[in-house]
Amino acid sequence: MTERLVVIGGDAAGLAAASQARKRRAAADLEIVAFEKGGYASYSACGIPYLIAGDVAGPDRLIAREPAVFRDKQAIDLRMHSEVTAIDVHASTVTVHDWTTGKEYGQPYDQLVIATGAVATRPPLPGADATGVHGIQTLTDAMDLERRLGEEKPERAVVVGAGYIGLEMAEALIRRGLTVALVDDGPQPMRTLDPDMGALVADGLRGIGVTLYQGERVTAFSTAKNGHIEAVQTGTGTIRAELVVLGMGNRPDSALAAAAGIPVGPTGGIRTDRQMRTSVDGVWAAGDAVETFHLVSGRPVAIALGTHANKQGRVAGINLGGGYATFPGVLGTAVSKICDYEIARTGLTEAEAADAGFATESVVVESTTRAGYFPGATSMKTKLIAERRTGRLLGAQIIGKEGAAKRIDGLAIALWNRMTVEDMSGLDLSYAPPFSPVWDPVLIAARKAAELIERAAEA
Amino acid sequence: MTERLVVIGGDAAGLAAASQARKRRAAADLEIVAFEKGGYASYSACGIPYLIAGDVAGPDRLIAREPAVFRDKQAIDLRMHSEVTAIDVHASTVTVHDWTTGKEYGQPYDQLVIATGAVATRPPLPGADATGVHGIQTLTDAMDLERRLGEEKPERAVVVGAGYIGLEMAEALIRRGLTVALVDDGPQPMRTLDPDMGALVADGLRGIGVTLYQGERVTAFSTAKNGHIEAVQTGTGTIRAELVVLGMGNRPDSALAAAAGIPVGPTGGIRTDRQMRTSVDGVWAAGDAVETFHLVSGRPVAIALGTHANKQGRVAGINLGGGYATFPGVLGTAVSKICDYEIARTGLTEAEAADAGFATESVVVESTTRAGYFPGATSMKTKLIAERRTGRLLGAQIIGKEGAAKRIDGLAIALWNRMTVEDMSGLDLSYAPPFSPVWDPVLIAARKAAELIERAAEA
Predict the structure, then answer these.
(1) Does the interface ipTM go beyond 0.90?
(2) CA nearest A345 in B: which residue?
């Protein structure tokens, strides 16, 4: 008897689940229908700032596979512009609204994967829906923004929110020739970094001409008579702009699951076990809509990131295809390239560590990306945060020019294995003059941190 | 009472030991004398190829600190052109030949650090000492070669030996405008890589115009009547050249220690414990002259590398300064940049794994260094070798353009922690379009290796 798999969401997680399930179960054994409410599936949302900046030729380049390919090559019936509006876990049916035809229909399932993704935070403020105020979550958002940039040639932009996307968008708009102000209510850009490291990012932003409004909250969006945005009001003043980009982060889009009685955790993400099963029989969830747990803090977290979504979708698909796989949790590893800086982090910041109850010691090491005598050597800062009592690594941050970002992976692997900074100081890391000083900054930082821990133990 | 520390060798290991000992013990407590037989101390030998290529402005740039700095800032009496010709472990004295004055004298010690470094392999062949045949081990060698290049303007060079130094020198000479032939008796350049990965290096070398003579042994060096090199004879023919560079590797320079009855291991390196003590009381050894052990094979190895030398010297200095430190062993991690390729390896090759008794599975993954749609994405090959039964990672090799080399560090840390490829496939590695595809090649390779291991278990 053919089972029916329904996938809600045509993003990385949903389609990875569908693909993996198909790999293990033929069409005669498993029928797969996937519903995507938008007009694009299977694209790289992380590539959007580079599309706006002009690095990527066009939106098509961000699309990994066209819907037809899923149908033709994998017998996955991917239906676009099809929004699932309700899940009935008792009847094992979802309700689908087809935006092309305007029709609504029920779709029964035996297995269900919820991959509804994340929903962008929009400020509940007057004027937030004005013409010229753009979200930047989806490829459709990107194309809307691109159209406005091309047709209206705005000169002044305000970016709200100084997380990865906000910063990447600020830089992209600078590169498009706009005057850019960045407004954020935090004390520094990038709250995923410690303040000392975040300050470097602020310097970089100012260096390319971004005006920073830190510690300021947007209070209203002022519109002209034609409904078009003309200024952003903050607690302290008015910033005139013809374009606003909202980069205020996002949260798991778990409303549909919650309405169906599928348990949602404290982060707002759908709860799953290691195999990506929810507690409701036959219902799985994966991607930005779920919560996972942090391997250092031990706490539930919801981190919207393509790599996690891909892995979780894959895990769900393997399991419902009859295989065995688990998702092991996350470290909060992230990188970004902003204003010539590579910015990387993993694990806990000092504040996150304190919040999780860890007493810590931190070190920051300034070094070069190549041997000092080698042409092109530039400065790099490496920060390590370790538990005071045990010396266990808890987190790391690196900011520098070329060669900085991918160094964070080694630190993520050290975290994963619960290494101490003492152990790390003996690591056999690679060395050649074009790639690092003879003591890699990671080793120097580990050594200094180990010395601090030793002194703390003696005190 | 003041103790006397004598250090034999002014390289990284010897001076790191001296500096660390000084840090912990004042001059009134510990007198430090270091003997360096050459005219340069404390320089980066790894920088020599870049000096010849013209990337580094002059030899001074490779010198970390002048001898006077050690005397003035650290009260380390560093004596140049001073060769230790004998150690008497019963009388606790070394015999020193001062090449400047021609005088010989005895120098008593309470503690002795042997950091005699490595000695370059020179073929015991007719003509090997002819004018125009250059070693490339020391800064003096580099300056001799530089002088010949400047004064005689040779047009054709033969490099003997296709290890890191041989390849880096071949490239440097190509960049200086010479016609370069590379002769090596192995089947491929870089025997520290598996043949399939080494073949990529061979392609790269040919791509920049190096003529490769693989699987050929040099049988003689032919000289003109004036004693100058004019050709290299191999098993199969004659290669005309006005310049020969020997890059045939090196071995621990342990002759002095061996003559004094200090135990030397099967690799020819001086044996030490984890604290870098030899089995003779008060005698320590560190750097290229010692043997250490490989953390994957468990076997003794001698690997001449500045990072190990630095660490071992530091460990010896801390311990003889009254502190506590250990050297944990090595993984054989190495990187090099040759012909636009970044070449990196860690752990065991397939052949080394087989030799150590491991049954293995290997995967090679071809991917891009950035997201496929991101400008500047180039190809990269990642190879993982895992134990067949357990899936434990045993070795890794990466060849690619930008961003390849430092990825090996993460793999080295995975090896260090005895991770399995299954575990590795769940790692939270960094992702952003400028730095990697959404599935980092390391994750893809780990996943494919895990699938192979699973299939091998089922078979």
Answers:
(1) yes
(2) B430
